[in-house]
User: Fold these one by one.
Assistant:
Number 1:
Amino acid sequence: MINRDIVIIGGGPAGLAAAISCYENGNKDIIILERDNSLGGILNQCIHNGFGLHTFKEELTGPEYAARYISQVHALGIDYRLNTMVIDINKDKVISSINETDGLMQIQAKAVILTMGCRERSRGALNIPGYRPAGIFSAGTAQRYVNIEGYMPGRQIVILGSGDIGLIMARRLTLEGALVKMVCEIMPYSGGLKRNIVQCLDDYNIPLRLNHTVTKIYGKERVTGVMVSEVDENRQPILGTEEYVECDTLLLSVGLIPENELSRKALVKINAKTQGPEVDECLSTSIPGIFAAGNVLHVHDLVDYVSMEAALAGKNAVKYVNGLFKPGFSIIIEAKNGVRYTVPGTINPNNAEDITVVRFRTGDVYRDAYLSVYLDDERVTHLKKRILTPGEMEQIIIPKKWFAERPNLQKITIMVEKE
């Protein structure tokens, strides 16, 4: 059994930022466990630009953004293990992992930071009729084939789902000479950032079919085409709207799911809306000493926010190891009227920073609406928003002084209001 103060599971952008934060806040007894053969996570295959505008005040590609953190990890001498699969973690913070060099390795940690990221929803979750031919890929898998392995997944492409990876791959495949025939989205709005719709679809005249989905896949050995249908307000196909589209490849960009099998093994309480751990203002989960940050917690739109969140988790993991957490009551943060969830879900005023950043997504598109914050029944924030959309994360700042002014505060409510 190896003893470590802080174990970080996952060496992507969240894990790297968390490790550096732990070090900078005074704890050097850190180890990162990463299952891939390099640090950096998903950023290594995201060769497009648009990263780092908040963190570094300049536009970087994914590998460039990751390299800045990797170089810091190397410079600080932070320990890490590559090609290391964590196979178990329990509520006592004992981590079991395996790799070719160390074999089966058990680590007793004082604190654990979960930064495993997320995975793509697969075809199996969609129940699309048809055989199982070659030519069906998740958008992230196709991105890895093109950007890292150097293979083209196909030449005539239909993309189902308008998440950011799907939009970015529509542009990427077009630049590589493929014909992207359309992007179909079952919802009446896109699941991606507005800038990606403009830069990846509009600039290349790629059609975005809202309220449309793929209802059948044709081909036995290889995809030969798909049936695209319009859907009604209940997202059910409308008879008579079917259109056959010839293609040799179907990419799926139908959502991301936080990777929380290990969290469940540790008996961490999972939020039904985010599919990530429930956390407080310190990003502490329901198991004391286990923290979570990044896409394992909730799916982000910008990696800069992942890094900020992970740095907070690292700082608080050090405080926990040093015994600096203060007991106290928790104020519930309620998501209401169009707000799907909030991260964090509770705040302990005794451990809160001067400001607490609460991030969330809406459940629908709202135009010319307001984001309001209520402290019990008192409205204290009423922000006019030209547009709110599920594809873009929102945030509200909760200053600590509110708690001092209201010692009996029970609940914070964040909601969308029309006026």
Note: The chain has a mean pLDDT of 95.
Number 2:
Amino acid sequence: MKTSQLHKTLIASVGAFALGAFTLGSMPFASAQSEQGEPQLMRPDPGFIQQLSFADLVEDVSPAVVSIRTTKEVEARYSQLPPEFERMFPQLRGRGDGMPRQATGEGSGFFIDANGHIVTNNHVVEGADEIIAVLYDGTELVAELVGTDPSTDIAVLKVKPSSDQRYVNFSPNADLRVGDYVLAVGNPFGLGGSVTSGIVSAIGGDDRGGQYADFIQIDASINRGNSGGPTFDLQGNVVGVNTAIISPTGGNVGIGLAVPAEVAADVTEQIIESGSVTRGWLGVGIRDLDARLASAVGLDEAKGALVGTVTEGSPADKAGIQEGDVLLSFNGQDVDSATALTRAVGRAAPGERTKVRLLRAGEEETLNVRLERREDDVVAAALGRQEPEGDDRLADSLGVTFAPLNDAVRERLGLEEDVTGVLVTDVSVESEASEAGIRPGMIITEADNREVASVRDVERAVEAARDRGKEAVLVRVVTPQGRDFRALPVGSGD
């Protein structure tokens, strides 16, 4: 997409204003003087005010943005019926009648080429029996699922496009900074073609970063239905894919998260080429070093990744990496943190041979490692050994089931021994919890700002939120992308 002349003028004017290049009457702001010759406040020029519009940019990019509508056949549950019915027949609560029902979902997406490929979120289309892409002009097209990557929440669809279908490009070099203007275009609450503006509030950082991507935090309003839609810079390039909001109520409070264009573009390319995404796997559970730990192992700086566990038979085990080692560099690149190492390994190709420099008992060593493929069933294998626990009525009303977090699951998922919480074992795809981004395999470590040590702790937090009339309870989670927050809808409890 080319930048409109109007936006070139806007950007140039703002730049001139920032540099202090003012010319009375010809620049955006003009000074005025009183009769006594005293300078007054700068007044915006009316002509410049008219240029403070994103209308041309929106006209350029909107035809490439689509609404996504999904349907899925599910077994009806009596818990979906009126509360009066459940009170009359409590013995039937939570049971299905065997009759199929259609559950629907909505999201957003955008064309990235002339071949009909559409990018959206994995959670928007996950488990869907039918996917419909609604174009800018209202045309509805059946979409084929090309592939997904749950780790980055990216999915690629394909439709038969028209010969003049508009599309947008991922930014070749976003180079975003905190404070940059961005636009979010999507389908919130089914209101297709909605546009909001804001700034980049943060990039990455603790509890914002992911395992494979540093999320972009924006304050442009995004809500349910915006998931999968694009975030644009002022040049009309896609700089992020909207994927989640952080909110104690479930509604927008100005904290939205988007997958960076660099990550989304790489994942999308792999999905289009092979239908899936492959990542390297080392097989270690690691943690950051603080100043005290660094001093204890003989390091001047708190950099590197401390190995807490080594999976038996993993590439790390075969290479001779041991618990207590501090990994200092991977493939020639210094390791600043555990997160940095995880991302570096994830970007590497399975089968790739690389060198790992580490510190062991005060001495540095270099080992040769042959990475293997990270299997998507790592979490599934851990879940398979866990039996759900908790109140069935609560599980039905939330659409979520939980299980205790034990040592076997910690080891399988590469978690530290001191991580406490409960494991999300199942989430109903038609539930509000699913819409809020709650996924199987997540670890809930806090609920309502209190540590979680058992399933009962989550139940108490949900019950307390309901008693206070809240729509959701804030939970802190450990996900395949790192530590994050979610707003768990609590429902009515009926």
Note: Residues 5-53 form one domain.
Number 3:
Amino acid sequence: MKRASRAAGAEDEAGAVPKALRVLEEVASRRHPLAVSEIAATLDLPPPTAHRIVTMLERLGFLGREPGRRRVIEGERLVRLGLDTLQAAAGSGTRHAILATLAARTGESCNLGVVADGQVVYIDRVESQWPLGLRFEAGSRVPLHCTAIGKLMLSQMPEEMLESHLAGGGLARYTTGTITDAKRLRAELARIRRQGYSIDNQEFMSGVVCLAVPVAGPRDGRVCAGLAISAAQARVTLAGVKRYLPDLREAAGRIARELAGEAVVGSKEKAEAKRPG
């Protein structure tokens, strides 16, 4: 009897793992916090099971609760796991090969970034070969409101999230070009949504101009990241950077397909991806 009880317990524990992973995937893929009842209904789980799994994952730090409410959001450990996984692949693989090709074509530094903890985190980057290259690394963090990728991601946020960010007083001035007025920033974000790309005209760093385009997510096609090129204005004007918009959009599309699991690079790029350094 004890042996049968242990076997049943082991089977229940093993079955809980895929259910927990499905809950994590569901929370991570949504753009808004979820009620436990929504998770249960979407994943066809009994409500008590969904509550038990969410409570366990919350205790472990993989899930959290929206401030002032009971809806479920990503926990710090889940966010960190995702970032660590993405950054571990920086410098190798298909995604990096696409960035390397774009950098070679444009002659400028290329960045792939996502939003985490109210900032842009570069999950991959290829530096230009120019002496005045911008020295950042994968894992570097930059502000949202005054960078090309940051403003692009802000423009895609649900109104509630955007309002929360703007109300947090995070519009610090970095240069004379930084937009620090919420009304002006909202107008800028509306323009970005209309035109489908974002610029940083020396708003974060004096003498540096950037251009960013969205990368569609693999599950629902919504924007999950931004792809940008950065250049020293002493070498390239903002108008000059904009001529690379078609190249950026092509690369962003290839990264989106790579995230979705499709083969998007040729043999030459695969060889470059495997090359040390």
Note: The first strand starts at residue 63 and ends at 65.
